[in-house]
Amino acid sequence: MKMIISGKNIDVTPGLRSAVEAKLGKLERYFTADTEIYVTLSVEKDRQKIEVTIPMKGNIIRSEQTSSDMYVSIDLVEEIIERQLRRYKTKLIAQQQAAASFQPDYLEGDEEEEEEVKIVRTKKFDIKPMYPEDACVQMELLGHSFYVFCNAETDQVNVVYRRKGNTYGLIEPEV
Predict the structure, then answer these.
(1) What is the CA radius of gyration of the chain?
(2) Which of 65, 90, 110, 115 is surrounded by the most beta carbons within 10 Å?
(3) Strand 129-130 vs strand 146-151: parallel, antiparallel, or unpaired?
(4) Is residue 27 within 8 Å of residue 99, measured between CB atoms?
(5) What separation in angstroms does the CA of 129 have from each of 94, 125, 147, 149, 172?
(6) C-alpha angle 26/27/33, rounded to 5°?
(7) pLDDT, tens digit, 9 for 90 and up, residues 92-119
(8) Mean per-residue pLDDT for 74-93?
C-alpha cells in the first residue's frame, strides 16, 4: 500500500505524516501492496480537513472529514473508510476485477451482516436537452440537490449537483 500525502494551506509536518501513516496504515490488511492511497490535508479558517481517495478498477473509495483538530479528522476518516469497506465487501467479492486490489485474507473472511441497500422509490421523467447552467436553475427551482438532464452540447446524460460553498458540480460520462 502506497500512501501519497500532500497538504493544502498546511505544511505536512513529520508528526502529521506519522499520525496519518499510523492510522491509515491499519487499512493495509485490506489492500494489496501496489494499491495507492491519496491523502490531502487542508486548512480553511478554523476547519481542519482530510480527504482520502483510494482508486481501484471500476471503483473509488473516498472519504472526507472536517473538524477543529486535524488528529480528530484523521481518526474519523479511517473509521468511515473501514465502514465503507465492510458495507461493500460482498459487492467487491462478486466483482472480481475490483477484488484484485484487496488482500485475499480480507475477501475470504467471515462476512458481517450489514444493512441491505433498499430502493424505496422509483421516479420516471422526460429528459429534455438543456445546457448545464439551465439545469442548475431547474434544480434550484425544484429544490433538489442534484438534477439529471441531457446535455444539449454533448447529447449525453449528465448530472449537476450542489456542492458545499454554494457552488455546482457537473458529472459527465467518460467517452
Answers:
(1) 19
(2) 65
(3) parallel
(4) no
(5) 36, 13, 13, 7, 14
(6) 115
(7) 555 555 555 666 666 565 555 556 778 8
(8) 78
Whole-angstrom CA distances from 134 to 107, 126, 141 are 45, 16, 11
Collect all residues with Cβ–Cβ distance below 8 Å to 135 and sequence separation of at least 6.
147, 149, 158, 160
Residue 159 clears pLDDT 80, i.e. is over it: yes
49 touches 39 (CB < 8 A): no
In this prediction, residue 104 carries a pLDDT of: 63
Whole-angstrom CA distances from 76 to 35, 71, 131 are 21, 9, 38
**What are the start-end ranges of the H helices in 25-147?**
70-94, 96-99, 104-108, 132-142
In the numeric block, the cell 467487491 is attached to: 92
In this structure, how many other beta carbons lie within 10 angstroms of the beta carbon of residue 66?
A: 17
Q: How far apart, in whole angstroms, are the C-alpha atoms of residue 13 and residue 48?
A: 14
Contacts with 141 (C-beta within 8 Å, 6 or more apart), sequence order:
none
What does the block give as the cell for 49?
480537513
